C-alpha cells in the first residue's frame, strides 16, 4: 500500500468531510489551494498497463514535473485499467498499474478519476468503491462530480454511456449497472451538468470526460457528445474540455468560442499513426506519442503544457485575459 504522509492524509480527510450535494445532484468536493490562491495539476489518461508501453517512463516524468510545480492533484481522464477494467476490489491490477507505478513523492496527492470505456468492460463498480480508497488513499473515482479549487471548478462527466456503439457490441461485455435505462441516465447527466455549470461562479470552468468531443486522432469526434454535451459547454462558457480516449496529446481551439479541446491520452500505449485532416487554424498541437498534460491556474491566468516521456515541453498555451498564446 502507498505510504501517505500526515499532511496528505489530513488533506484527504478534509476533502471527504467537505463532500456536499449541490442543487444539480452532483457530488461536490472542495480542494484546498496554495497560499497565493493558485492551483496546479497534472492530467493523464489511458494508462493502466502494469508499467508497460512506457507507462513507467511517463510516470517518472510526471513525478519530476509534479515536484517542480508542487502539484495539488492529478486528473485521470479514464481507461484506468486495461484491457477490461478491474475484476473486483481485490484485483492485483490496481496495485500493479496504479500504486506501484506512480510512486514519486509529488504524485502522492489526490487523484480524481473518471471511467473510460475499457473500465466499463470490467467491474465498473469496483473502481467506484470506497474499498479502493482504503487500499490507496489517493484514489477517488466517481461517475460525474465537481471539484471546486479556488477560482476554478472542474466538472467530471461520465461519457461512456453516451456512446451508442457500446450498447450494440456483441463481442464485448459492459457493466451497465447504475446506468440503465440509458436514455434516462444520459438525460439526468446532461441536466446535472447544465445546472451545475450555471450555478458556478468560478472564473475558470473545466470539464473532464474520457471521450473526445473533437479530435483528429483515430477515434475522431464523438458525435453523441458533439450533439448533446457540447451545446451545454458552449452555452455556459466553459474554458477547457479535457479528455483521453485517443492515445495522443492534442490541442484543438474552438473557432467560435473560448473553449479549448485538450486530449491527454498518452499514458501508455500510443504511436497509432492515424491522424485525420483538420483545420490548421484550429489544430494548435498534435503528438502521436506518450506523455501527459500539466495545468497551472492563478487568479488571472490559466496555462496548460504538454510533456513527452523525456520531460520535454512540446506545447504550451495561456488563456490569460482572453489572450490565447501558444509557445
From TrEMBL:
The keyword Cytoplasm does not apply. Residues 1-24 form the signal peptide. The keyword Zinc-finger does not apply. It catalyses: a phosphate monoester + H2O = an alcohol + phosphate. Fe cation 1 binds at residues 46, 79, 82, 247. Pfam families: Metallophos. One of its GO terms (molecular function) is metal ion binding. It is found in: Secreted. Residues 40-248 form the Calcineurin-like phosphoesterase domain. Its cofactor is Fe cation. Belongs to the metallophosphoesterase superfamily. Purple acid phosphatase family. Fe cation 2 binds at residues 79, 117, 210, 245. This is Purple acid phosphatase. Keywords: Glycoprotein, Hydrolase, Iron, Metal-binding, Secreted, Signal, Zinc. Binds 2 iron ions per subunit. Its EC number is 3.1.3.2. One of its GO terms (cellular component) is extracellular region. InterPro entries: Acid_PPase, Calcineurin-like_PHP, Metallo-depent_PP-like, Metallophosphoesterase_PAP. Its main location: secreted.
